[in-house]
Amino acid sequence: MSKRLNIGKLGTACVVWHILCAAAVLLACEPILWLQPEEQLMPPVIAGHAGQIIATAVACSVFVLLASCTYLLLKLRNMRALITFLNWCMIWLISGYIFTEMAIKADPPPPYEYNAERPIQPTDTVHLPNENLTSPSALVIAIDPEPFDGSKLESIPNLQLLESEHEELLATYLEQAPRWAYADKSDIFYTKPGHVVLVPPARGGIPGTVHATFRTIAEGEAMPSGFIPVKPGDDFPNPPTDKEEQPDIALELSGKHYLLLAWRGTKHRETARKAINAAIAAIDSRMQKLAERPTMETLERMCKGKGKRLGSIPELHLIEPNNQYGVYQAEVYANTGRAGTMLLAIRDSEENMLRLFSFPARYSSNPNEVFRHDIPGDVSDWLIENFQSSPVGNFPHGAPFFAIKAGSSHQYFNVSFELQFSPNGTDGAQTETLLRRHYKVQAYENPATE
């Protein structure tokens, strides 16, 4: 009886140990999946050693499994050894499922990889331009439709407060905010570059996105073609037939400003409505700071965003907003430690220069922080003026997006992005290559030239 009790205690202890190890692994995955450097709620040392914690926990669990199974086999407890192994498999299969759900929900950006030497060879890593941007100019916003209901339109307390009590300040923000100021004024804005796209997580099937922009419609002016005017709290408008997509809506802000929202993707009504409500909530929440402190200082901070974060390695992030083919946005995070000029050169595989961006380096003496540089937001005026004469120079002056070259959309090619630094006083004779990364991109097809 004593031996049986000891064997039973051993099995229970092993199960508890494996559960603790699996829990440690899942907890250590949090800083990898969710916590961005500027948002970390724990010391960077802990977050930086998350991989070591995961490896140690898995190794300890495997060691305990082997030791317990070996002991049971030597005691001729073959069935108990099999049960111990099956318990271990079940615990880690459940943990793997939980991790998969966490990863799908977090949707982390691709890991930074240091760069191959040019020219681009078939063996080099070529990335897709789908990294997350964090600046106020980012035209892609991630949303989660799950918590939202699809029966009535969400409320917009912050936008309505600004519209009713601080209309001039709201109008100024929409004219200056990089995210909203450069949207095309066409009624079919979701086919044009510059509008905001709100993207729910992919869950299989036909994907979908919400396209959004603000529009000023004075009294007596016609509503944009195809848009149905609605108010917060109203029922969602129904399409004429069940086979049609969710109608485009113009959400009234109780004044002359409207928020235009268009769903593109699956025709599943509930999916579309929940995503639209998630988009409304995400946009309204970004206006909370201005609603709580309606001052020009708040507006300026919202337009500039957070300029630095923890880190020491230069980073480049590139994205092509959904349904804005051949249009790109980029951010560079770097700290050169001294004054100078940074160059971002975009070349094709034959080393032909396609784009060249030049901007002053932001820096400090702290080696553990990097500064955000928006591309093309910090481009020199003379360089922007030069771009205006290019085949793709029809974008608004100062717009936070760019095209790499003119041509036919959906014809993809590989390019290299090379970030260089030239210290002040060297006249460009001394340059340092900070990073090089390769991307698969496409040309911008200018509708005006068709």
Principal-axis shape: globular
Number of domains: 3
User: What's the pLDDT, averaged over the residues?
Assistant: 83
Helix content: 25-40%
Helix and strand run: HHHHEEHHEEEEEHHHEEEEEEHEEE
Q: Helical region count? A: 10
Number of strands: 16
Structural class: alpha+beta
Outline the secondary-structure elements.
Elements: H1 2-33, H2 44-48, H3 50-74, H4 78-106, E1 126-127, E2 140-142, H5 157-165, H6 167-176, E3 196-199, E4 209-216, E5 227-230, E6 248-252, E7 257-264, H7 269-285, H8 288-292, H9 296-304, E8 308-310, E9 315-319, E10 327-334, E11 340-348, E12 353-360, E13 369-375, H10 381-388, E14 402-403, E15 412-423, E16 432-442
Helix pairs in contact: 1-3, 1-4, 3-4, 5-6
Structure write-up:
With 450 residues, this protein is α+β, with helices and mostly antiparallel strands. The chain has three domains: 2-106; 140-303, no CATH class; 308-449, Immunoglobulin-like (Sandwich), CATH 2.60.40. Helix content is 33%, strand content 22%. The chain is built from ten helices and 16 strands. The protein has helices at residues 2-33, 44-48, 50-74, 78-106, 157-165, 167-176, 269-285, 288-292, 296-304, 381-388; strands at residues 126-127, 140-142, 196-199, 209-216, 227-230, 248-252, 257-264, 308-310, 315-319, 327-334, 340-348, 353-360, 369-375, 402-403, 412-423, 432-442. The strands form three sheets. A six-stranded mixed sheet has the order 2-3-4-7-6-5, covered by helices on one side. A hairpin with a 4-residue loop joins β11 (340-348) and β12. The longest helix is centred in the N-terminal third of the chain and has 32 residues, at 2-33. The radius of gyration is 27 Å and the shape is globular. The model is unreliable at 36-46 and 110-118 (pLDDT under 50).
